[in-house]
Amino acid sequence: MEYAVNMQETPTVKAFFDPATNTISYVVKDPASNACAVVDAVMDIDYAAGRISYENADALIAYIQENDLKLEWLIETHVHADHLSGAPYIQQKLGGKIGIGENITVVQDTFGKVFNEGTEFQRDGSQFDKLFKDGDTYKIGEMTAFALHTPGHTPACMVHVMGNAAFVGDTLFMPDGGSARADFPGGDAGELYDSIMKVLSLPDEMRLFMCHDYGPNGRDIQWETTVAEEKANNIHVGGGRSREEFIKFRRERDAQLDMPKLIIPSLQVNMRAGEVPTDRDGKPMLKVPVNAI
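Above: the chain sequence. Below: its structure as tokens.
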């Protein structure tokens, strides 16, 4: 498929790092207008205390308001397993449409069973305003953006390309961080390799923005690199590593990894477009399935 890459459009990208989850959220501004998008917003949770707050989301809102921007899109690169989405809270304050990949329905079906959700939980993606297909385009002001389907980490993963900037979700990390795990339900190491190759087929000068960074070997947190740098130096796929080598490595590596600390609340909230589920009395309530993931 041919994609509408426009390397002449350079959006302004403002990053917000959340040290509690090592997540980077972004406000992306159209260079030709005051329109913007938010990518992978974070909602704060003290899981032990059962308390939700909005410091991270409020920082994004303040930046948008202080710079007189108009929020048009709230993009989720995938159903995150390590943080809760702040998208509906921001939407309530500023408007905009919440979008995710169309395979959210696969994730909803899988985890609807894990969490024993009833028939009232819709598994058709209707909690979101837009379900993106591979190659779908959309506008942020005058700038045309498009979505790349990049499964492997999860079935619904999408990379969003906005001018000369691509937001890769968990498909890739910084060159010294490598790649995402592929052992969640619906994940596949071979698909992840193919998705990474799709991303690395973008122009060498394309700016790549990470969803997470963990500061390998004690370096400072970073979140921006390029296609060329990833192709040359990524420790998991760079330098021509074969698909077979990657699959073997990824499976061995994933078998050693612990589950993300916030996977239980994150999945329940994020498959609902960031809304916290409620009990039969309408009170916010999270479940903990035992030995189910």
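The chain has one domain: 12-270.
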